[in-house]
Design a protein that fits this description.
The structure is a homodimer. By secondary structure, the first copy, chain A, is of the alpha/beta class. Chain A is about 35% helix and about 20% strand. Chain A has 15 helices and 15 strands. The first copy, chain A, has helices spanning about 80-90, 95-100, 105-110, 115-130, 145-165, 185-205, 220-235, 250-255, 270-280, 285-290, 300-305, 325-340, 340-350, 350-355, 385; strands at about 5-15, 25-35, 35-40, 50-55, 60-65, 65-70, 135-140, 165-175, 210-215, 240, 260-265, 280-285, 310-315, 375, 395-400. In chain A, the strands form two sheets. Chain A has an eight-stranded parallel sheet with strand order 6-7-8-9-10-11-12-13. In chain A, strands 1, 2, 3, 4, 5, 14 and 15 form a seven-stranded mixed sheet that branches. In chain A, strand 2 and strand 3 (about 35-40) form a beta hairpin. In chain A, helix 6 runs parallel beside helix 7 (about 220-235). Chain A is globular and about 70 Å long. In chain A, about 60% of the residues are buried. Chains A and B meet through helix 1, helix 10, helix 12 and helix 15 of A and helix 1, helix 10, helix 12 and helix 15 of B.
């Protein structure tokens, strides 16, 4: 049976776990049928009688797995440029808050937006990520903070996956912040998250996972554990915004609940790193927020290496602390600010990001059986993808076997 | 006489010096004839009988002057991604140098490149800058370090201006680093720069200005002064890489020679700031290099404000310390890392960058008589241009009155 497509004359970073580093194959090719990879390896190993409906000569370019952005808050109303300007003009956080700024500002704008408006504004950000080779994106709710708006945000996220040739994985993040109508009663709000919002969202199949923000300014470990228990009762995997601003032992908490990932982790200690590693919970670092907040404590990269923790990185695209819509730039920031190696950066936005979404069986490497999601790059070596700043060498993007000539975006 | 084109239904940041801040005009329009602005202001002030060959409704978008990147090293051979990867893998500077890395690596690749190859690789970087609304770019030589290659680089820079609808301003930077064949004899090399290279380049009219790198690892103030004297003898304005890594009083030196700009300035002291201000020498800050080198001492922004120094910012696009090809990102870095205000960032890539090139009479503001170079943005407020990270809201770019429908890039 012929292949649908063969991409020839390419160098591959297969990211295959049984190969060292990036799993590089020089002079390789990729063959696909019915949207899945049938062969990815050395051209010399392709059967001599292999035929395909379409053969694409990549002219010596590099093929990586399609990029995976495993942590975004892509759906929200408005933006916070005004607040950004006020801070630079010397306004204090109190003054900004008094002027209606902060997360409450995004919540109001999100509540005021229709689903179509949320889709339209999200598409602009998504299109920028897609233009850099992203083929799978995680999108969280968490700017609605009431049941109707959280549902509307998750519907909008799902809709993005229908509007574009991209896979969308959703997370319900009701436990992101306190809505003003909750009057500061965090336990009562968590009750609502667990007993009303989550059941309704699970019933509608709008969430692929459940996330929470465990922090002094957000929710306690005990409140987070209640959210996790409710997620488990609905058969949903969990993940956590952990130890970003202080060490509440969020990493350990996430590991104890078998979380897919624990994210941020600037203040995680060695106990937390060991717990993550044992639970195979992926450590997701988010250098965009670190940069934008001008943080000085980086995540414990040396401990991740010492213990062999799975390590991914993502944009954290959001209107407040990381208005970043470039996964290539997230890689450069990971290298520059956290001293991640090039291999760690590239694995962190492919194989390890797929693992962080529980999708490693479907995406994240160039291996037979997985979806044929590819990014084809005009580069001479993979390191260029992390080295360049504000540059996009994408030549073509392939999602589920379809190359750019087959769809409009 | 009718206009060629009127852009209507726009908000303007005129950057006009007789208006406060960004010189904002809501509900404005711009009219052009023969490539120059004839009117820029409130729509209500446009004569009622104004007619144009073409009227473009901007739909409420914002128009800024076309962006000006006033400090780049855009022309060079090769790249330094491998060195970037080696550093992250733990290699020392000695090991990288031993492996042939550093500026010597770029010099060898530049010497080995033909003019056509230099144009081709420069075009990729230029196209990214153009895609973000840049209409004028300064390009330095300085990776050739011998007469033939310096000339070839400046020819390639001039050629970029013929390949694209963009204005190119060139600087001869022979005094950038020491070529290996000079055997460490800096004075002898400066002799060659002043007595051989500069006269040849001036005769060919390849340089619009002369630049130098005054630093312990480069050239001394006395050597720099000799370069400046030679430039003056050829009627060329000067500029300086000053006080980046240490305070050699480069800012004062630049001011004493009436330099157009002094660039970097991380270590400039108040005397230097006062000297720059008195000489109307523009302070050009380069946050990309600060970011990539993980510097901790920012330029003296507070002193620039105190004394009213003209302040611009630029990408410093180069293969080693700032492989950055996004002027929008340079603005975000200026705001995030140097705490520049939004107005300082936007003026710094328009009016003040034009001043830094000695071109304020022709570009940099939306005022009658200047070239009609425009950037038209899909934004709700100008602050978005500095707030977003890795996002490009450019709607259209106009160079000398020609909108994108009139040329191919």
């Amino acid at each position: 049976m012929p292949f649908d497509t063969i991409w020839t004359h390419a160098h591959l970073t297969t990211m295959a776990p049984d190969r060292p580093g990036l799993g590089i194959v020089e002079d390789g090719c990729v063959a696909a049928r019915d949207g899945r990879i049938v062969f990815a390896g050395a051209a010399a190993d392709l059967p001599g009688d292999a035929r395909a409906t379409e053969t694409i000569n990549c002219g010596g370019r590099w093929i990586t797995p399609g990029l995976v952005d495993c942590h975004t808050h892509l759906i929200f109303g408005g933006h916070r440029a005004n607040e950004f300007a006020m801070r630079l003009d010397g306004a204090t956080y109190e003054e900004i808050s008094h002027a209606g700024g902060g997360i409450a500002s995004s919540m109001r704008a999100t509540r005021a937006a229709s689903e179509a408006e949320l889709v339209a504004s999200g598409l602009k950000r998504l299109d920028h990520l897609i233009s850099e080779g992203v083929t799978t994106i995680e999108i969280k709710s968490g700017y609605g903070l009431d049941q109707d708006t959280e549902i509307r945000c998750l519907r909008a996220a799902r809709q993005l996956g229908r509007e574009r040739a991209v896979s969308v994985v959703t997370s319900f993040l009701g436990a992101h912040a306190m809505p003003p109508e909750a009057d500061g009663d965090k336990d009562a709000y968590i009750d609502r998250v667990c007993n009303e919002m989550l059941p309704a969202i699970a019933k509608l199949n709008l969430a692929d996972a459940v996330d929470a923000f465990c922090e002094g300014i957000a929710f306690s470990p005990a409140q987070t554990a209640r959210v996790f228990a409710a997620a488990k009762a609905h058969g949903l995997p969990v993940k956590l915004h952990a130890d970003q601003l202080s060490n509440l032992h969020g990493a350990r908490l996430a590991a104890e609940h078998g979380a897919l990932s624990a994210d941020h982790l600037e203040h995680t200690d060695e106990d937390g790193v060991i717990a993550l590693t044992r639970a195979s919970t992926v450590a997701v670092v988010l250098p965009g927020a670190f940069y934008a907040l001008r943080e000085t404590q980086a995540p414990p990269i040396a401990l991740f290496r010492k213990h062999g923790t799975h390590l991914a990185l993502a944009t954290d695209s959001n209107p407040g602390t990381s208005p970043l819509t470039s996964l290539l730039l997230a890689m450069n920031m990971g290298a520059t600010l956290f001293r991640l190696t090039v291999d760690e950066c590239l694995l962190g936005v492919t194989r390890e990001a797929a693992r962080a979404l529980g999708k490693l069986h479907e995406i994240g490497t160039l291996e037979a059986g997985k979806f044929c999601d590819l990014a084809i790059w005009d580069i001479e070596q993979p390191a260029e993808l992390a080295y360049r700043i504000g540059f996009n060498p994408l030549h073509a993007r392939v999602w589920h076997g379809r190359s750019p000539t087959h769809f409009s975006n």
